[in-house]
Amino acid sequence: MADLGRICLLLALVVCAYGIFAALYGVRTGRVEFSESARRAVYALAIVLTTAFVVLELAFLRNDFAFNTVADTSSRTTPTFYRAAAVWSSQEGSLLLWAWLLSLWSSLALFLVRKRMRDVAAYATAVLLGFAGFFVALMIFYATPFQTTSPAPAEGVGLDPLLRFPTMMIHPPMLYSGYTLCTIPLAFAVGALATRRVDADWIKAIRRFAFAAWLFLGVGILLGARWSYSELGWGGYWGWDAVENASLMPWLTGTAFLHSLMIQEKRGMLKVWNVSLVLATGVLAIMGTFLVRSGVLNSIHAFGGATLGVPFVVLIGVLVAGSIYLVVSRRDVLRSEHRLDSLLSRESIFLANNVVLVALCFVIFWGTYFPLISEALTGNEASVGPPWFDRYTVPLALVLVLLSGIGPVIAWRRATLANARRNFLAPVLSALIVLAVLLAAGVSQRPFALAMFCCAAFVLGSVAQEFVRGARARQAIAGESPPVALLALVRRNRRRYGGYVVHVGIAVLFVGVAASSSFQHAVERPLAVGGSTRVGAYTVRYVRPTATITPKEDRAHTGSTLDLGAVLDVSKAGHHVATLRPSEGFYDSGEPAQGSVGHLIGGQAVSHISMNGGITRDVWTAIAPNIATPALQRIITVGNRTLSPEEAPIAIGVLARDYLKDPPPAQFHFIVSPLVMWIWIGGLIVFGGGLIAIWPAPSALRRRVALRSRSRAAAGLARA
Amino acid sequence: MSPARKRSVRLVAALGAAVVLASALIYTSFSAASPALTPSQLLRQAQPDRSYQLTGKVAQGSVRHEGDALDFSVADRAGGRVIPVVYTGTVPDPFREGREVIVTVRKQGARFVGERDSLITKCPSKYKAAPAGEKQNY
Amino acid sequence: MNVLIVVLALVLLGAVIAVIAGPLRASLDHRALQTDADASPRRAELEAARESKYREIRDAELDFRTGKLSDDDYAAVDAALRAEALAILDQLEALERESATPRDA
Predict the structure, then answer these.
(1) Would A505 disulfide with which of A90, A686, A715, C40, CB 3.0-4.6 Å?
(2) Are A342 and A413 in contact (CB under 8 A)?
(3) Are C41 and C31 in contact (CB under 8 A)?
(4) Picking from A19-28, A117-126, B48-57, which range would have the lowest pLDDT averaged per residue?
């Protein structure tokens, strides 16, 4: 079966090469059939790569350890769900996932524009097939998923226990979809520049693709943060790690683009800026992919050997040089048609928003690549930590949230100053009320958090005012009842009100971030059974220890040999709040050198945290049990000496029983974070709002509107 | 001032502000950064009260819990010099002897004290091009 | 390589060739390709510009009704937008007249 996989890769490479040739030939000579054939080549690529992916998936599901990648990342004892997802836990498997997703999304995009923008689409096809061909070539020449060993080993190494969490398995496909979707606007931008057609039609098409990229990338990032917080043992959701930053940067430029695109649509301005943003987003997405697999930067995720570094650097060099060349050589087409009418206009607020987002991206870029930069400039590799990032991103985030509250109040083109001043009354009042309340509650020691809460109140006040006024305006025209008016208002102005909802979501999210980072209580200390400690307003008591041994055949289990944990009683002011059960799972290391008993628990240790989440706060607990006591260690050494591998599990049972009978104090980590749930809720609101904004209005509605606008336009001019 | 002139002035002012802020950013990054050093380099170059990023492997047999703190030694990747570190704070799940770690340390007297919560353990290289026959240890 | 793999590979190859060669065969047979009637990029651009201009007019009205613009400012913006819309409509009509002429002749 591996042969079929290899054939698929070769066929894929041929298809890519043919497609690139056919697309360029077709668009150069005007022979439409070749451009069409090139588009079909993308569909064909999707078919071939799907076959390859299915071959690999089947190999994992069937435990075909002849495949090196299956033997390296899966095992008979890995539960089925994780076996299916282990496909993308390795370098070569994840390359296949990337190429496969690229082929699927490219097929969809090209299918959607198959009747329009032929020339632009032809160049876009060539670019997308170029990317696909690059990744397929990487797989063929550097890291193939279809390498086999003969004779096949009897058992595999198993999936890294750190990855045995459901969220961790959804996060890569989401993130890769985001990354691959970022290349589609880039491809269409290249096409538009090549054919000198950076016009309204292109804007319509590219907006959908840019939004899809924004959505999937955003969801992928949020999932990663959620996984880190709720399943890893450090209790944080964002560490300014290089890989986290790499995914955030294209999301920031993508957000900027979605805003500035509206300015180009309305005023024909910022064309150079917009194509640059699109190209930058695509390049940042490729850099993000590269970062994870080149080992170029030190990071928790260091996913790579140095072998892939050179091809990626070459690709990025080509992309950057090509982009600069295209923009410079097409600058005549990219000239602005108009200028900003007035500084007091929504366009100018959007411009400010773009500046802040790009500044954020620059800060994060600088900090992330600083080790490389400093090594190049000073010869010493140095890195900056989270405090440096926080120092610059926090003020910028404040300005961003503030702008998102100012925008709704200002009209397009040219706002009336008197009206604007009046309209700011309610939002500013909301902010001041919140400020007064919080100061009275004694929140003054954290000025940045306080500022963020006030800015968020400002945004909520401003958006609420917009909804109320808009609904009232509809009622005045159509005489509907308030709820119906509100619904009709949103339905007829999806982009505007969907955008407002997104801004509310962002404000809520930042409130959650500010509260949980500034007002957190964390305690790390050892506790003996019966002991308790205070964390913020809560008291946590160690009630009793737990020990679980799960048979390997239990498919639902994550595969740990032994789980030691605790039952914790969380109470507040004497009232019971929750019972939490954190534990630590000890996994098999597969190293006979550790002894027959030792290796069963000598592998990875994975913390299973236990959390009580709520609207106002999360109580988070983790445990690191101590198995290094002399008594417990003696069981292991005696077992190593006297027990054969088949008998070794008996010793684990003895270990568990002794741990329960006489538990040594365990190291605990408790965190009480306020408003963490608002981060996830805010994220959901953001994506819901985005969907509202992008949802196409029903066509009947559009036709009615078009007809009415046309007659009014004519009537207006006749009167004037 | 004509509108065109006003626009040019605004543009220049905005660009000027951007350049100033970017310079401030770049300048502070160099002073706020901790150089990444291996144990041998650290032993040679360490100055008291400067923070450094110590990178290397956790030496076998060196991990000990002392109450709240964690004692361990970091060795050069290729073997050789070893530096003992006293660390308090979160210990990542993958941490164990033989793993590659990065920890921010400060020299205090003769000891190296790890900054709170600064310990990063590299995930065992899932994406490593494993030489034939080598087993990953998990 | 067993027979199953060879068969699957050949099936795959056949599918790929069929998909890719479709348009090429069609043109060789001098069959009309499945293209849409109005492939004119200029027309598509104008239609998109028109839609966008209508949206701007509605946005300006909503801005006025939610109290962001004074009566005078709204009248000015509205008139300007309508003039721009009519300009686009005129260009579209000119394009239609151009493309209709050859057929008449």
Answers:
(1) A686
(2) yes
(3) no
(4) B48-57
